[in-house]
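Case 278 in the screening queue. Each case pairs one protein sequence with one candidate compound; here the compound is nicotinamide-adenine-dinucleotide. For every case the pipeline is the same: read the inputs, emit a complex structure as C-alpha cells, and attach any notable structural observations.

Predict complex for case 278.
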Amino acid sequence: MTGALADRVAVVTGGASGIGAATVERFVAEGASVVIADLDGDRAHALAERLGERTTAVRVDVSVEDDVAMMIDEAVHRFGRLDVLFNNAGFGGALGPISETSVADFDLTFDVLVKSVYLGVKHAAPLLMDQGGGSIINTGSVAAHRGGWSPHLYAAAKAAVVHLTRSVALELGSAGVRCNAISPGFVATPLAYGRPDADTEQLAAMRDAAATDQPLGRVGEPDDLAAAALFLASDESVWITGQELVVDGGISAGPPWSTFPEAFRVTRPIRHHRPPGR
Ligand code: NAD
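Case 278 output:
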C-alpha cells in the first residue's frame, strides 16, 4: 500500500456525510483502513460497501460512552491497531433565544458536540500511547471565535472543543500522541443547510447565496476539509500539536475586498505628513 497514510488505521466519526465522508474517501485513497462511525448506520454502511474492504461501518451515538468504546475496539478488532481518530460528528444544536433554551437542549448540544470529543480522546489515548504515537483531530468551528455565525450553544460547545484540544495535547505529547483541531468556515453540507436530508439542489442554492461573503469567492467543500484532516493525520504534521487549523476561505480574516469601502480600494497618491528631517 502506498500513500500518506499507507497501512494506517483511522476512525472517522460523522463519517457518513459531509466533511466526515470526504475525509473517509481521502484517507482510503491515501492507503488507510477506516472505521466509518455514524449515527446514520445505513448511510455509513452504504459508504463502506462502496469503498470496499479497507473500510467498515459502525452505528454509534458519539455521546454514549459504550458506543465510543465499541468504535475504538472495532478499529483494533477489524484492522489490528489505531493511528488516527477524527472526532468530527456534529449537529447544529439548540436554536433560539437563550431564555427559551431548555436544560435538555443544553445537555444534548454539549453531549453531541463536546462530550463526544472527550469520550473519543479518553478511549483512543491509552491505545495510541501504548503504540508510541498517533494523531487525534477534533472538529471545531470558526463559530468558536466569533459570535453571530451560529446558535449560542453551538458556539460555546465548539470553543470548548478547541480548548480541550490544546489541554489534552499537552498531556499526550510526551507519548508521541498529537492532538489538533480543524475549524471549518462555511462548508456546503447538510449541517450548514440545517437539514440532514438536504439534497444537491438545496446545497447548490446555498453555495450560490453564500459565495459573495467569502474572501476566496466560494464556500468550502467537504474536500477542502478532508485535505486539512489528511495533513494533520499524516507525518507531514509530525511536529504540530495543540493547534487549531482554521480552514475557512479567509472569512475569519474579515469580509471580502469587494465589500471594503471604496476609499480603501481606489489607489490615490497619499499626502506626506511627516515633518522634514524626521
Ligand atoms: P453533516 O451533517 O454533513 O455530517 C455530520 C454527520 O454527523 C452526519 O453523518 C450525522 O449523522 C453525524 N452525527 C450527528 N450526530 C451524531 C451522533 N450523536 N453520533 C454519531 N454521529 C452523529 O455535517 P458536516 O458539516 O460535515 O459536519 C461535520 C463537523 O463539521 C461537525 O462537527 C460540524 O459541527 C463541523 N462544522 C461544520 C461546518 C459547516 O459549515 N458545514 C462549519 C463548522 C464546523
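Case 278 observations:
- The chain is about 45% helix and 15% strand.
- The radius of gyration is 21 Å.
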